[in-house]
Design goal:
By secondary structure, the chain is an alpha+beta fold. The chain is built from 22 helices and 15 strands. A seven-stranded mixed sheet has the order 6-10-11-15-14-13-12, with helices on both faces. It has a three-stranded antiparallel sheet with strand order 4-1-5. The longest helix has 15 residues, at 246-260.
Length: 509
């Protein structure tokens, strides 16, 4: 092989590393001697390997090193030695012994168990605990224990090389807090080929130009230069492109389905007053969902809307306002309505829109919202969850219209096996749930809660038309579309990051 030509192609990093490989073969040692970062050395080694100049081997090893307490005990000795030294004189109680030995109470308690196990102390229970050093304890005080001998070794240690008595000491110390730590390290070593040995012995000095500049071309100086060839097959770091989170991809599918059906999108705040979250939609002030175990309350109050409207809501609660209903027949307290809460459902935004836009016309709105409830977590429940809220306002709408919408909407997502059942909601009557059949799990799952808004909920807004409405778990739909059985696998700190980077684009079922 033409070694002169090969030398001319070497990158400056390769030139810096190659001579060192005659003496050093381990990555960190090469990096230190070359005064380069390990990533730079690794890049040079990969280039040299591609040129058949060396071979790289990577071995995984478990290394034992001293943790924060281990570093202290290596220098000052184990706390049980300090304990025995303090105990060798007249015993005057644990508090005095703790102060005298300069050990923490936690260390003293640990020493009691350790030394009793080694028959180094004798403990007599009673009104005042009596602790006395034994003959075995006196011997331990005069000589290093096996654990102390182990701590005096040169660290780090190869875990696989720890045998026999040292293995016993390691196991005992590993049970204790912050003395030893075990880490898995990747050990990268290199071996020069015959070609590499030959090149490493050469003088690699001299100027090699990495790039051709316009100035060189203009002045003609490029003719006297030696240019380095570039290896287009070299291993380079993989760069992952930016992409949407699969959860957001699924939400966009839900959003697109609503928009295709002619809906307009709403938006609202995360923090609401209890008025908009409950009172405005005729949820009684003694309803269980208002309890702290269901709702996240803030430590401040908010403001109520205009007094005339608030009085209408008050009347709807106390006597049914102008609907012919008796209402809840209980006094309504505006102070409870002022409490600030984290939005527990997106229906609060629906009623905000009734008020702010003075809606009393044929219209359709939806909202994909984050909501918060103080719930126990399981496969389908988290304290934060997504909800796709919506309503249709029109003349003489019925449950048949609502069922038709639900079937048409979910058909767009590929969900067709649906059944309905009656349920109860405080602000809709009649009310209805929809369930879907999960073929993979072989079970029926709740899909949507829905109904027709009660006259008591609509009367304060002056709405004469009928309103069919629903709230569906958008996060659950997203789980269905992404093939996840648990919401924790879809979003949050436990999600597999590699799945986020490599998943296929979310599509309808």
């Amino acid at each position: 092989m033409d070694t002169d030509n090969l030398v001319a192609k070497l990158h400056p990093l390769e030139r810096a590393v190659l001579p060192i490989l005659k003496e050093e073969t381990e990555l960190s040692a090469i990096s230190k001697k070359a005064k380069l970062q390990e990533i730079e050395v690794m890049r040079a080694l990969q280039w040299l390997e591609n040129k058949k100049i060396l071979s790289i081997s990577i071995e995984k090893k478990k290394i034992v090193s001293l943790d924060k307490n281990g570093l202290i005990y290596k220098k000052e000795g184990l706390p049980e030695k300090e304990f025995l030294a303090a105990l060798s004189e007249e015993y005057k109680g644990l508090n005095v012994l703790t102060k005298k030995s300069r050990l923490s109470r936690e260390e003293v308690n640990a020493c009691l168990g350790l030394l009793r196990k080694k028959v180094a102390i004798d403990i007599k229970p009673g009104e005042i605990l009596q602790v006395k050093i034994t003959e075995q304890g006196q011997k331990l005080l005069q000589q290093d224990s096996l654990e102390e001998q182990f701590l005096k070794k040169e660290f780090p240690l190869d875990l696989d090389a720890i045998k026999d008595i040292d293995k016993y000491s390691f196991d005992e110390l590993k049970k204790r807090k912050d003395i030893l730590k075990v880490e898995e390290l990747k050990l990268t070593t290199v071996k020069l080929t015959e070609l590499g040995i030959q090149l490493a012995s050469l003088d690699l000095g001299g100027e090699v130009v990495n790039r051709l500049t316009p100035g060189m071309l203009k002045q003609g100086t490029w003719k006297d230069k030696q240019f380095r060839a570039y290896d287009v097959e070299i291993n380079v770091p993989k760069i992952d492109g930016g992409r949407r989170h699969p959860y957001n991809e699924a939400l966009n599918i839900i959003r697109k389905a609503f928009l295709e059906m002619g809906f307009q999108e709403m938006a609202g705040p995360w923090v609401e007053t209890a008025f908009w979250g409950m009172d405005s939609m005729w949820i009684a002030q003694d309803h269980p969902m208002r309890e702290a175990q269901d709702t996240f309350y803030l430590d401040k109050d908010g403001d109520l809307p205009d007094k005339e409207f608030v009085n209408k809501v008050k009347a709807a609660h106390e006597n049914g306002y102008n609907t012919g209903s008796t209402g809840h027949t209980k006094k309504w307290d505006p102070e409870l309505a002022k409490k600030l809460i984290l939005r527990q459902h997106s229906t609060a935004t629906t009623f905000r829109y009734f008020y702010e836009k003075k809606l009393n016309c044929d219209c359709k709105y939806f909202y994909i919202a984050d909501n918060f409830r103080n719930e126990a977590t399981d496969a389908t429940h988290l304290p934060e969850f997504g909800q796709a809220e919506g309503f249709i306002m029109g003349d003489n709408l019925t449950l048949a219209d609502l069922m038709g919408f639900i079937k048409e909407f979910y058909a767009k997502l590929g969900i067709t096996k649906i059944r309905f059942k009656p349920t109860f909601n405080p602000y809709t009557e009649p009310s209805m749930e929809a369930h879907y059949y999960n073929e993979k799990m072989g079970k029926w799952y709740a899909l949507i809660n829905s109904g027709i808004f009660r006259p008591e909920a609509l009367a304060p807004y002056g709405i004469k038309k009928s309103v069919i409405a629903w709230g569906m778990g958008s996060s659950r739909i997203a789980a269905i579309l992404t093939g996840k059985n648990k919401l924790k696998d879809l979003f949050g700190p436990e999600v597999d990051f590699e799945w986020i980077k490599k998943h296929q684009r979310v599509k309808t079922i």
